[in-house]
Amino acid sequence: MTVLATTGLTFAYGDVLALDGIDLDVPAGRIGLVGANGAGKTTLLKLMLGILDPQAGGVRVLEHDVGQDPLAVRSRVGYMPEAATLPPDQTAADFVGYSAELAGLPPKASRQRASDVLALVGLQEERFRPIGGFSTGMTQRTKLAQALVHDPDLVLLDEPTAGLDPEGRDEMLDLIERLGGFGIDVVVSSHVLGDIERTCDWVVMLDGGKVLRSGPLAGLEATGTVLLEVLDSPAVLVAALERRGAAVEHEGTRMQVRVEDGDPFTVVRDALAETGAGLRRLSSGTTTLEDVFLRAGDTL
Questions:
Q1: pTM over the 0.90 mark
Q2: Which residues neighbour 15 within 8 Å (Cβ) at sequence distance 6 or greater?
Q3: Quick one: pLDDT band at residue 219, thresholds 50, 70, 90?
């Protein structure tokens, strides 16, 4: 199933273009929506829910056209907003139970469902306390519980780790990882790339309202990189590598060689053979999601 599909999707706040004709086709799974603040992430989530109407193009969620049938989408989607939206004078059990009733569950079933979901997110003991006295971590867990209480097929999580300390962040990310085991697809919006690397298997990169990259996380990270150190001046070797299409960064006699297509070790081997450069050290490098994001941004 396709979780999200857009065609020429455009939205602007006055003169500020938030999304600029983006085209996406995203399969089921755990999807990371990444970008700096103001990149268009929250706008895209609101368009997926039908809270905002596109000014051009269209958006489909779980194969439903949001513009034509927004209720069909909302009945199958849970939403955890970034903003503090919880009533401080209600208990978590009351609020999450009320959210279940809004989704169509009868009162008794709503109370049981609320209890089950609050236990799932680690608020079994605190569920009868007023939300106004909750810590940031407990508040985030309550927002996640209300997004899950009606048993959705897809949940949209907007900056779920915002404001959390390291322990709270780890616990929230553990919860997100577990959702896939319950058959729930997830879209996680975050500007913290490490969170996406840990929890997601597909990533959509936004910058300035445009799509930088969209694809499997493993594929985006799988750029061929080799780290090496030579005995003498690297200038001749660098030139030979660049003639073969490699991107080379070097400091002194150490260098990082990146090849977009093909085997980087073959490229390095051939350049070493051509130049006769003496090799001190050779190893494979790792590419982080941040590296991919920065390189994609440089191509705009």
A1: no
A2: none
A3: low
